[in-house]
Amino acid sequence: MILSSVPEAPIRSDQAAHAPGGRVLVVDDHEEARESIAEILRHSDHEVHCSPSAAEALRRLDDESYDVVLTDLNMPGMSGIELIRHLEKREHGAQIVMVTAYASVATAVEAMRRGAFDYIEKPFTAAKIEQLVARAIERGRMLDQRYACDRTTTATAGEANSKATESSGPAMIGESPVMAALRERIAQIAPTLETVLISGESGTGKELVARAVHAQSERAESPLVSLNCPVLSAQLMESELFGHERGAFTGADAPRTGRFELADGGTILLDEITEIELPLQAKLLRVLQERSFERVGTSRSISVDVRVLATTNRDLQDEVGEGRFREDLYFRLAVVPLVVPPLRQRCEDIPLLVAHFKDHAAARLQRDPVVFDSSAEQLLQDYRWPGNVRELQNIVTRASVLVGRDKVSAEDLRPWLIDAEGSTEVAAAEVPAGLSLHEMERKLILATLDHFDGHRAKTAEALGIGIRTLSGKLKTYGYAPRTKDFSKAA
Ligand SMILES: Nc1ncnc2c1ncn2[C@@H]1O[C@H](COP(=O)(O)OP(=O)(O)OP(=O)(O)O)[C@@H](O)[C@H]1O
Ligand SMILES: [Mg+2]
252 burial class (0-12, 13-18, 19+ CB within 10 angstroms)? Predict the structure, then answer.
């Protein structure tokens, strides 16, 4: 069971061809609340419908499918939690997010145990709800991808991707020696209770590896709760991790259960762990050592039985050297390191991955798989893939959506590649020699964001990075979007 986990795939079902975001149903008896959420989400390119009651939402869900259902908790008649209980019993394909002004721990936990993706407390910012819905959509895509993949696996038993089975975890394509070694190491490590540090460049599949470790462990039936560190402020992060008591800080109107408590008996995934700031690292170290912690605002210790997985796309040893990461925490985390190799070190897997993503896109779009001519195949093979598997997945999906029935040539693909010759107008922006890599990255990201009028999903796709990685970087640049127009970069 995965409570909150978020790898990305660029395209959602056939409906996505019409709605660049996802289809969202907002259920709330208060018209004003419903409409304000709907308005925020429409600005992020989602197709939003509203229901004034849980009963009406159930009727709608009989006929229509949604990526996300955002439901208020307290409604007259059927409550949000009752709606979730009903939905638990039927096929609906939506990720459910519970919205509540009174986050009673019991209801939040019940909602999540009954399959809700997450809950959000009122009042919340536009940015928070956008992020949550984006993550919920991503999770749905991931599950769809897994489902399509399982079907492909059954149909093509014996082929390379037959490694993807429900019991061993999500489909991890690749037969190269480095991937075989990684798989072997996952199989060794998964059954242990050790903390695992998964490192690798952006888009290499770290989260996929984390899910495989969980799926192959004895905790597979227990929750895998993930926390995406880059998108949270220090205070929110502490309360997300450890929970808080009512009144612990301004705005903490109700108690909140932290992710460590939600993961009790299962696994927690701390995604991009270097984003956790030093003071909080000390508290995390204690959890790793003693498996106990206190909620913010209390001195009562809570003990949990949680396996910890962490990912990083930075060199943690460097971070330690620079004084940004505690050495003792590094040693605790790095007991069992897993390194996910960049795609350029496993070029022999490219054709397998291309075939996998083509079939996947074709299944979603309900058409025949896209065909690449030899120039396109050569380009895909020779390119260095700075955005790794995610970039490859984006390119294949984009070709599947945009190029229709014709064969795809290298010329069709080149403009979409981040740093191929003749690639996107954005990448061609003037960059004076002598800039540090850091500064150049910042300029490229902001220029791309500007190019796409502040649209993060499009920016992340063009750059071949995850939307969360993008958000994390923007956070470090101090970039703050205006609430509604997702302003251009400063
Ligand atoms: N070996 C693989 N087989 C199939 N799909 C893969 C593989 N590796 C990665 N992917 C897909 O590529 C995308 C990126 O993977 P993932 O999110 O796990 O990468 P990441 O290393 O966590 O990226 P980031 O650093 O940006 O968070 C996902 O959609 C994932 O399903
Ligand atoms: Mg990741």
Answer: middle
> Residue 212's domain is classified under what CATH number?
3.40.50.300
- CA distance linking residue 147 with residue 399, whole number of Å: 22
Task: Assess if residue 422 is contained within a domain.
Answer: no
CA-closest residue to ligand 1 atom 25: 202
Helix axes 437-451, 467-477, angle to 10 degrees: 110
Contact 297, 341 (CB under 8 A): no
Range(s) of the domain holding residue 58: 2-140
DSSP class of residue 340 equals P
Looking at the structure, tell me whether residues 290 and 167 fall in a common domain: yes
- pTM for the model stands at 0.62
Contact 285, 174 (CB under 8 A): no
Report, as an integer, the average pLDDT of 16-25: 65
Q: Of 442, 364, 325, give the one whose Cα is nearest residue 152.
A: 364
Residue 176 vs residue 419, higher pLDDT: 176
pLDDT for the residue 190: 94
Check whether 152 has a pLDDT greater than 90. Answer: no
CATH code, domain with 396: 1.10.8.60
Atom 23 in ligand 1: which residue has the minimum CA distance?
A: 203
Q: % helix / strand / coil in the chain, to the nearest 5? A: 50, 15, 40
Find out whether 18 and 47 touch, Cβ atoms under 8 Å.
yes
Alpha helices (H) in 309-387, listed in sequence order: 316-321, 327-333, 350-365, 374-382
**Å from CA of 207 to ligand 1 middle:** 6
> Residue 353 has what pLDDT?
97
Any idea of the CA torsion for 35, 41, 44, 45, to the nearest 10 degrees?
Answer: -80
Name the residue at shortest CA distance from atom 10 of ligand 1.
205
pLDDT tens, 436-474? Answer: 777 778 878 887 887 776 777 778 877 878 777 888 888
For ligand 1, is residue 205 a contact (CB within 6 Å)?
yes
Atom of ligand 1 nearest to the CA of 392: 12
Give the ligand with the smallest distance to the CA of 201: 1
Please state the length of the chain: 490
State the pLDDT at residue 2: 42
Task: Note the pLDDT tens digit of each residue in 43-63.
Answer: 888 999 999 999 999 999 988
Burial of 137 (0-12, 13-18, 19+ CB in 10 A): buried
Structure tokens at 444: 């490229």
Q: Is the dihedral of CA 155, 157, 159, 165 positive or negative?
A: positive
Is there an atom of ligand 1 within 6 Å of 172 CB?
yes
Last residue of a domain, one of 278, 313, 341: 341
- Enumerate residues 6+ apart whose C-beta is below 8 A from 39: none
**72, β-bridge pairs:** 99
Q: How far is the CA of 467 from the centre of ligand 2 (A)?
A: 10
Q: Please confirm whether the linkage preceding 415 is cis (ω < 30° from 0).
A: no
